[in-house]
Design goal:
- It is built from 8 helices and 8 strands.
- It has one domain: TIM Barrel, CATH 3.20.20.70.
- The protein is α/β, with parallel strands linked by helices.
- Strands 1-2-3-4-5-6-7-8 form an 8-stranded parallel barrel.
- The structure holds D-xylitol-5-phosphate and zinc ion.
Length: about 220
């Protein structure tokens, strides 16, 4: 079963609680995009908002840290209630250590890859991580256009995971909607992070479409 993690960056933040309740029946997780204005050209939110989301829903929360030096904050994100903490490969000098900071606190550790970073960069750490987030847009904003050749990367990763019989989950993030979902799911994506596709369109009809996808 493919899961949806709804990115609240695309919601009406002035009514965050209601927005989460509106989409809750159609999603599996809530996705929090933490941006620092240094790693990515945008600034969003951090720990206080995670705590607020926690009070609005009992769904698991995944925190996507688009910040430099994430090792300074990962434990606090777990303490604040994140079930999954995702750090970017491009921001971690000591990725193995940072992953175990997350896991030792009891959360799942995912590693995100920018569109230009090959999946092979993670080949020596595959046994240590719970999931890989393939960015299907350049990180920084909701509502961007899906980068098409990232589906090849999802397929490559999916093959590596199968060959090595690993339990790693493949998450995708950026530009997922009714037009792009079949390609990513049939390439191997298991968790879809969705901003506009869920909050700005009809979440019920999207969920229905997702459940009807047949891959040849
Ligand atoms: C982009 C963020 C995404 C974004 C997704 O940097 O990581 O999570 O909010 O939004 P959509 O689905 O609208 O591309
Ligand atoms: Zn994200």
């Amino acid at each position: 079963m493919v899961m949806i993690s709804a990115s609240i960056l695309a919601s009406d933040l002035s009514r965050l609680g209601e927005e989460i309740k509106r989409v809750e029946p159609y999603i599996d997780m809530v996705h929090l995009d933490v941006m620092d204005g240094v790693f990515v050209p945008n600034i969003t939110f951090g720990l206080p908002l995670l705590e607020a989301v926690k009070r609005c829903t009992s769904l698991p929360i995944d925190a996507h840290l688009m910040i430099v030096q994430p090792e300074k904050y990962v434990e606090r994100f777990v303490d604040a209630g994140a079930s999954i903490v995702t750090v970017h490969y491009e921001t971690c000098l000591h990725l193995h250590r940072t992953i175990y900071q997350i896991k030792d606190k009891g959360a799942q550790a995912y590693v995100a890859l920018n569109p230009h970073t090959p999946v092979e960069m993670l080949s020596d750490i595959l046994n240590d991580i719970d999931g890989i987030l393939i960015m299907t847009v350049n990180p920084g904003f909701s509502g961007q256009k899906f980068i098409k050749n990232t589906t090849e990367k999802i397929k490559r990763l999916s093959k590596i995971i199968q060959q090595k019989d690993l339990k790693i989950k493949i998450m995708v993030d950026g530009g997922i909607n009714e037009d792009t979902v079949t390609d990513v799911v049939c390439s191997g994506a298991q968790i879809l992070v969705m901003g506009y596709g869920i909050f700005r369109y009809d979440p019920a009809s999207f969920r229905k479409k997702l459940e009807e996808i047949k891959c040849s």
